[in-house]
Write a structure and sequence with these properties.
The complex is a heterodimer of chains A (262) and B (221). Chain A has 11 helices and 7 strands. Chain A has 262 residues and is an alpha/beta fold. Chain A is globular. In chain B, a hairpin with a 4-residue loop joins strand 7 and strand 8. The chains are: A alpha/beta (262), B alpha+beta (221).
């Protein structure tokens, strides 16, 4: 039987990297796509996406959508005049200034077209539960259902967009990533795109919380001090207070060795 | 996303009602209360809920005003009173902003609760079930069971008191006056309330009366 094919949009972020490993574990032939839509953190994202590519073999296309910067002026991610919002200032907003209008619809449409031309039946979408909670309508279960309803109109080819993480908390995604041997040191989440993650944007906030809840120290460098041990005491339930936070160094060392072997 | 807000001062309540308009213009609900007159609840389809309110309120002398403004969701796009905040169940009245992640599993724990597409409807059911004589304990236990994001005002008919809690969702307040809002207001709701704290609304302001474990998916440093 031919290997199943899938298309995966990858950003170099934690969620899409876990999806990559998940698709590998399900024995998919993977066709990865990354997008440059003019986002501030593009270089950091792509650095991670490419490193993940060195470690595992799949086709990887980079699509240039940088025209988006010219037409989308409202997002902090694509407009240099707008600061990336910190979590404490925007949490609970119906749509924060970090939101990029209709981004997921655009990317998933392109991935679906690619999948159809490849004869792939699946596009994996990296939406997670926290995306809905952060106010991103295009990361919700309802959005996934609606876009699949549209794709169902295709009389000839059936491409289904699956989102295996959509009901998972960040904690559960980290745990799954550990299980799948993800090299978290080579994933990028922060919207700022600086050398070190800011630790204060909504992307960083949920990532840090996910690692803490899962019982791990995030191997990414942060520009602010993250008091992991002290915070661990505040998030663990009283009965688990004696369980120490684990470091993910072994995974990173294994990954680095593979990189150097190529 | 939705917005919750409240104040002892109706003028402030009107301002906070307007400020929360961006968070929801689909439906709104209010609870007015005074010891003398009791509780008054109303839920309306759109934004004109405050039309004519002043005359009504002056006539009936309410002195605490708490409200909610609601955005439509995919699952609920037609106005129905049953799916509009505040939710009134037995001894509890609750308005909520946020997403209850574990709504489905909570529904399984309470099979007698009539299924409601709005996840917030489970909150007063939990409060009623977990009440053993103390408002604070019931609220703490309820919040411990909720996963996701929430900012709520909770009115207990046992004690005729209002409480405010938040975890993951924003609630700003003036702790001296008791005014609060999901949207920051420089004059009337300037400061973020602490996550995981149960605040009691009193005539002297907001008082911390309990805690719960916040399961917010965000960590704010």
């Amino acid at each position: 039987m031919d290997q199943k094919k899938c298309v995966i949009p990858i950003s170099g972020g934690l969620d899409s990297t876990v999806i990559l490993r998940y698709a590998e574990s399900q024995d998919y032939e993977i066709h990865a796509v990354s997008f440059n839509y003019g986002q501030k953190h593009f270089n950091k994202e792509m650095s991670c996406a490419r490193e993940q590519g060195y470690l595992h073999s799949y086709t990887h296309k980079l699509l240039d959508l940088s025209f988006f910067r010219d037409i989308v002026q409202t997002s902090a991610l694509t407009n240099d005049d707008i600061d990336v919002a910190k979590t404490k200032d925007v949490l609970g907003d119906p749509q924060t200034v970090n939101y990029v209008p209709n981004r997921n619809m655009m990317m998933l449409s392109i991935c679906t077209a690619y999948a159809e031309s490849l004869g792939a039946e699946t596009v994996f979408h990296g939406a997670a539960l926290v995306d809905s909670q952060a106010g991103y309508w295009d990361g919700s279960v309802e959005f996934l259902s609606a876009i699949n309803n549209v794709n169902d109109l295709n009389r000839r080819s059936r491409v289904v967009i699956e989102a295996p993480l959509i009901y998972k908390s960040k904690k559960e995604i980290v745990e799954l990533g550990v299980e799948l041997n993800v090299d978290f040191e080579r994933t990028w989440t922060c919207y700022e795109g600086q050398e070190e993650a800011c630790g204060q944007c909504p992307a960083c906030s949920s990532r840090i919380k996910g690692f803490l809840d899962a019982g791990y120290i995030d191997p990414l460098p942060y520009s602010i001090d993250i008091p992991w041990v002290e915070l661990a005491g505040s998030v663990f339930k009283p009965g688990n207070r004696n369980i120490p936070l684990k470091r993910l160094g072994s995974h990173a060392r294994i990954a680095r060795k593979k990189l150097h072997d190529l | 996303m939705c917005g919750i807000f409240g104040s002892f001062d109706y003028n402030v309540y009107e301002k906070l009602y307007a400020e929360n308009g961006d968070r929801g213009n689909f439906a709104s609900g209010s609870m007015y209360y005074s010891k003398k007159t009791g509780i008054y609840l109303r839920r309306d389809k759109h934004t004109t809920i405050l039309t004519g309110e002043r005359a009504f309120l002056e006539r009936d002398s309410y002195d605490w005003f708490a409200g909610h403004r609601q955005a439509p969701t995919t699952t609920q796009r037609a106005f129905k009173a049953a799916t509009t905040h505040p939710f009134d169940y037995k001894h509890w009245i609750v308005a909520h902003n946020g997403i209850i992640e574990n709504y489905s599993s909570l529904l399984r724990d309470y099979p007698s609760h009539q299924t409601n597409p709005v996840d917030s409807s489970i909150i007063p059911v939990l409060l009623d079930d977990l009440y053993v004589g103390s408002d604070e304990l019931a609220i703490s236990e309820t919040c411990n069971r909720l996963q996701g994001t929430f900012g709520c005002w909770i009115f207990s008919k046992h004690t005729r008191k209002t409480y405010i809690v938040r975890s993951g969702s924003t609630v700003f307040a003036d702790k001296l006056t008791g005014s609060f809002s999901s949207v920051k207001h420089a004059s009337h709701a300037p400061s973020a309330l602490d996550e995981g704290t149960i605040y009691l609304v009193t005539a002297e302001g907001l008082v911390s009366v309990g805690e719960f474990k916040s399961n917010s998916p965000f960590l704010i440093l």
